Amino acid sequence: MEETKTFSMPRIGDKAPEFKAVTTQGEINFPGDYKGSWVILFSHPADFTPVCTSEFMTFASMEKQFHEANCNLVGLSVDGLYSHIAWLRTIKEKIEYKGMKNVEVNFPLIEDITMEVAKTYGMLQPGESSTKAVRAVFFIDPKGIIRTIIYYPLSLGRNFDELYRVLIGLQTADAFSVALPADWRPGDEVIVPPAGSCGVAKSRMEGKEDMKCYDWFFCTKKLDKEKVLKTILKK
Ligand code: BEZ
Question: Is 213 a catalytic residue?
């Protein structure tokens, strides 16, 4: 009988599975090498493909912005190291796209020919492709905990405004002990923790606290954009 190996996919709140890998920037120990900073681990289906090329150029162009938010980028595909190197050289030397040119990809790109890392992280989704990783994005915090996971299919490039918004949102929720409403961006109102007693619920509804309440369980307060950005961004 054919043996089927099953893999459990990591989930939000889990410790990021550890691995050692060869990358375009040398060997890495993941996530240990990134302790103390945020890291976005993302997969792409294949080198020398158009959607992935547009994404890599965008990631590389935004790398400084991610660094300023204490976040490193680490890419992965199931291609080999020499393919990665050749592709990144082609991007730098030949591709001009949406005003981006001469783009150097300085973050590590993992070679995963054995697909071990891709399988461990649930990046291979056979209904979509059994040979290529989907476009997975794992946001991992400075303690090595997975905080958000986003998956895109092969045919749709990621939304980089959203990836950056998620990173800033996670850090804001942590730093200010708040939750963030739909479509939140820095400068928008934030949600205060729910009332923990009937007394607090009453005083909130009577307008005695410096917040706006839509009902006793749904109250927001102002949080200045400058305060958020000053807390999160290092220049
Ligand atoms: C792309 O990146 O263009 C791509 C990769 C795999 C399948 C389809 C598109």
Answer: no
Residue linked to tokens 């990173």: 167
Q: How far apart are CA 124 and CA 117, in angstroms?
A: 10
**The pLDDT value given to residue 105:** 98
Q: Is the separation of the CB atoms in 107 and 75 below 8 Å?
A: yes
Longest dimension (CA), the chain: 69
- Å from CA of 136 to ligand 1 middle: 14
Which amino acid appears at position 98 of this protein? K
Q: Which domains does the chain carry?
A: 19-166 (3.40.30.10), 177-232 (3.30.1020.10)
The model's pTM is 0.95
Report the pLDDT value the prediction gives residue 3, as an integer from 0 to 100: 59
CA of 124 relative to ligand 1 center, distance in Å: 14
Q: Residues with Cβ < 8 Å from 54, sequence gap 6 or more?
A: 97, 98, 157
Looking at residue 2, its pLDDT comes to 55
